[in-house]
């Protein structure tokens, strides 16, 4: 038993080892040297002894991948495009990383032979490729800084790429990125108008509504829009959004009732069939001959509907400040509403339809006061406003 187990483990080891080397060989044969290299590296990082057969394949994949990258670089050097310079930089980085992965695994030996891997210092090549790529990007971005807002946004994206790969490219790089961002930004002045203050009597609700003039723009998808609810006189605004609360409608708590008669026939037992001697008659299978004994039962369900709501109506208007044209007005309505349905009954509960069971289990509830309804309705109103603005195409 023990010998069989050892034999099975040995076979499993051989099969997994063969499977790994075959995958690497296939990748080399198909010219996918990076895949072959990665596969061999992954195996050898797990266990150099177990996957030692990968070492000759690793050397072959390493040399062929390097040769392929260098040949590609030579072709790309004949071009002078952003994409070509970007790929030259990436290829040199690949060459450098590839040999670093080899260094971490060395020494690498298989079948009594230690395998040597040729290496080169690519730091100067990487530095030059990075500068050439950065120069080309900057050549693209520089004239865009003097163009339109859309041009400035493109400049921002290009300069941000330089900042990622080459943060020390220029001493004024951060200032130029900020300049592009400022120029590409659309500024929107938000004005709030409360037209319902005179409709309220309770001071708490009035205080809540007076403080509604704020927006949460943190989750807005468009990073090129800045909203101000207080005017900054050093900024030229592109648009103005007027938000008004025009009407508040309160439906005080009401209790509606409805009586629903219930009637049902239910079985209360059996009617048996007797013979002349007073005995219960049997069918051919020996069972009592009987029919259901039915009885009509009645009940009355009283349904109660508690209801209370506060509704806010307003609108959002968008104006282009350069032309003075109103671009559109959107009505906005929000509602805070609570409804509770419960029930009681009189009579036989067996007569009651199942659809009333939940209401019968429910009880009368204590609703929040008017202030809480006003606060919730206002929160919903602001969320709707924010949703409209976040989707606005500026």
Strand order in the sheet with the most strands? 4-3-5-6-7
Query: How many discrete domains?
Result: 3
Order of helices and strands: HHHHEEHHHEHEEEEHH
Our Rg estimate from Cα atoms comes to 40 Å
Which residues form runs of ≥5 with pLDDT under 50? Answer: 1-18
Helix content: 40-55%
Q: What is the CA-CA span between the terminal residues?
A: 77 Å
The mean pLDDT is: 89
Categorize the overall geometry.
Answer: flat
Query: What is the tally of helical segments?
Result: 10
Q: What structural class do you assign from the helix and strand content? A: alpha/beta
Instruction: Tell me the fraction of residues in β-strands, as a range.
Output: 25-35%
Strand count: 7
Quick one: biggest sheet?
Answer: 5 strands, mixed
Structure characterization notes:
The chain is an alpha/beta fold and 394 residues long. Helix content is 44%, strand content 27%. It has three domains: 2-120, no CATH class; 141-184; 203-266 and 295-391, no CATH class. It is built from ten helices and seven strands. A five-stranded mixed beta sheet has the order 4-3-5-6-7. It has a two-stranded antiparallel sheet with strand order 1-2. A hairpin with a 4-residue loop joins strand 6 and strand 7. Residues 1-18 have low confidence and may be disordered.
């Amino acid at each position: 038993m023990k010998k069989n187990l050892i034999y099975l483990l040995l076979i499993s080891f051989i099969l997994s080892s063969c499977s790994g080397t075959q995958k690497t060989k296939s990748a080399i044969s198909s010219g996918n040297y990076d895949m072959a290299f990665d596969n061999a590296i992954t195996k050898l990082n797990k266990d150099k002894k177990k996957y030692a057969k990968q070492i000759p394949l690793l050397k072959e994949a390493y040399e062929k991948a390097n040769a392929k990258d260098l040949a590609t670089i030579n072709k790309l050097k004949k071009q002078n495009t952003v994409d070509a310079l970007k790929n030259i930089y990436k290829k040199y980085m690949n060459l450098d990383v590839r040999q670093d992965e080899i260094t971490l695994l060395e020494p690498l030996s298989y079948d009594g032979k230690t395998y040597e891997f040729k290496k080169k210092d690519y730091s100067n090549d990487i530095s030059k490729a990075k500068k050439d790529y950065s120069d080309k990007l900057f050549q693209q971005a520089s004239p865009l800084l003097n163009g339109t807002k859309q041009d400035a946004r493109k400049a921002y994206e290009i300069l941000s790429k330089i900042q990622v790969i080459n943060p020390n490219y220029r001493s004024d790089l951060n200032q130029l990125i900020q300049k592009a961002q400022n120029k590409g930004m659309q500024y929107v002045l938000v004005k709030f108008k409360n037209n319902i203050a005179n409709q309220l009597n309770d001071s708490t609700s009035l205080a809540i509504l007076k403080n509604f003039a704020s927006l949460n723009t943190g989750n807005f998808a468009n990073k090129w829009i800045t909203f101000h609810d207080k005017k900054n006189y050093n900024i030229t605004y592109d648009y103005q959004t007027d938000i008004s609360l025009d009407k508040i409608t309160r439906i005080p708590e009401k209790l509606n009732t409805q009586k629903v008669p219930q009637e049902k026939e239910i079985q209360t037992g059996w009617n048996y069939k007797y013979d002349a001697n007073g005995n219960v008659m049997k069918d051919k299978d020996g069972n009592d001959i009987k029919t259901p004994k039915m009885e009509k039962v009645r009940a009355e369900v009283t349904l109660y509907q508690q209801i209370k709501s506060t509704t806010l109506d307003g609108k959002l208007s968008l104006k282009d400040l350069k032309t003075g044209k109103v671009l559109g007005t959107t009505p906005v309505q929000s509602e805070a509403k609570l409804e509770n349905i419960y029930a009681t009954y009189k009579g036989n509960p067996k007569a009651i339809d199942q659809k009333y069971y939940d209401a019968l289990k429910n009880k009368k509830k204590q609703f929040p006061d008017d202030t809480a309804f006003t606060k919730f309705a206002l929160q919903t109103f602001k969320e709707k406003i924010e949703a409209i603005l976040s989707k606005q195409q500026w």
